[in-house]
Amino acid sequence: MRYADRVYREFEITEPVLLELLSSQSLLRLKDIDQAGYSEPHFPGWHSRYEHSVGVCLLLRKYGASIEEQVAGLIHDVSHSAFSHCIDYVLAEGTEGDQSHQDNVFDEYVRKSDLPGILEKHGMDTDYILNDAHFPLKEQLLPDLCADRIDYSLREAMVFGEIGDANYFLENLTAVEGKWVFRNFEAAKRYAELFLKLSDVYYAGLSTAIMFRTVGDYLRHSLAKKYISEDDLYTTDSVLLAKIAPHRRNDELLSLLFDRMNMKIPVRNDPSDYDAEVFCKSRAVDPLCYENGVVSRVSDIEPNWKTVVVEKNKPKRYFLKFER
What residues make up the domain containing 141? Predict the structure, then answer.
């Protein structure tokens, strides 16, 4: 199978386990789930969780990760609901500040899916694949780099026109003993600054806060009125929208909430007079790089970056006031 990717170009995929996973129901569902949540009214340039999931796999492949780590990267997002992290603003146990719902349900979701059967068919142990301790390139806590973080940042930087291509960063990136290390400080700092801009504008900006709150309100109201069930949240974006749509004719509040999430009603950030408080996960990275032959962090070379990282890894808070 030849796969063309906007970030990593073309790859030939021949491993039976990857081919079967790519055509599994769990992965194919992600083709109709927006990576950002509900991006078109806010950030035109839609791309799917499927594209990102394959991208993580390809990034790991490009830098020599084991087939097991490639598999772990490929399936890492299968437990996302429709509209991605908007789910953190829907359920009663919402996790706005750290957007952790998907991670919290991941293990149980995978075990109930079609994936364990595929893994076992190809001689892979599900418990091993689900244990991130085995795959340091795939997953790390902030402010470190990991394949997930690298892929979504480079992909979204290209989608939203912040960079023309990712070649500069990929050519200056290495994988050394389970760690991502840039070849020089210049590349590491440029990447860290790019990531910070993506966080400030896209991941935790005002438009994103509006998207999360308005989509969350629309889905929460639909759940309360029993237009949809919690199981429906794990279908896809288009399926969920289609199921709710007929109810807008007879539900004025639902219609209002739909207009809000499609940016048809003006809204501002106003701490003194607001209808809704919103927290957004903000993030910054502190990459490793070679400096005079020694592996250091950006903040070791430029100490003020440590302050940036500490401040930017705190959730952002917004106060939304709608005209109606």
Answer: 2-205+282-320
Residue 14 placed within a domain:
yes
Tell me if 26 sits within 8 A of 114, measured CB to CB: yes
As for how many domains the chain has, the answer is 1
The pLDDT of residue 72: 98
Give the integer Cα–Cα distance in Å for 127 and 238.
33
Tokens 């990136």 locate to 173
d(CA 61, CA 53): 13
Nearest to 99 by CA among 282, 240, 234: 282
The strand order across the sheet containing 276-280 reads 267-269, 316-322, 276-280
Radius of gyration over every alpha carbon of the chain, rounded to an integer in angstroms: 20
Q: Is residue 167 part of a domain?
A: yes
- DSSP, collapsed to helix, strand or coil, labels residue 107 as helix
- 303-322, pLDDT tens digit by residue? 999 999 999 999 999 999 99
122-180 residue pLDDT tens: 999 999 999 999 999 999 999 999 999 999 999 999 999 999 999 999 999 999 999 99
Predicted confidence at residue 130, as pLDDT, reads 98
Q: How far apart are the first and last CA of the chain?
A: 51
* Residue 88: per-residue pLDDT: 96
pTM for the structure as a whole? 0.97
Q: Is residue 115 part of a domain?
A: yes
Distance between CA atoms of residues 212 and 194, nearest Å: 23
For tokens 């600054």, what's the residue? 193
Q: What is the CATH number of the domain that holds 123?
A: 1.10.3210.10
Residue 74 maps to a domain: yes
Please report where in the chains the tokens 């629309």 appear, as a residue: 218
Question: 238-273, pLDDT tens digit by residue?
Answer: 999 999 999 999 999 999 999 999 999 999 999 999
Nearest of 231, 233, 221, 223 to residue 259 by alpha carbon: 221
CB 257, CB 214: distance < 8 Å:
yes
Angle at 313 between CA 205 and CA 268, to 5 degrees: 25
DSSP string for 67-95:
HHHHHHHHTTTTT--TTGGGGGGTSTT--
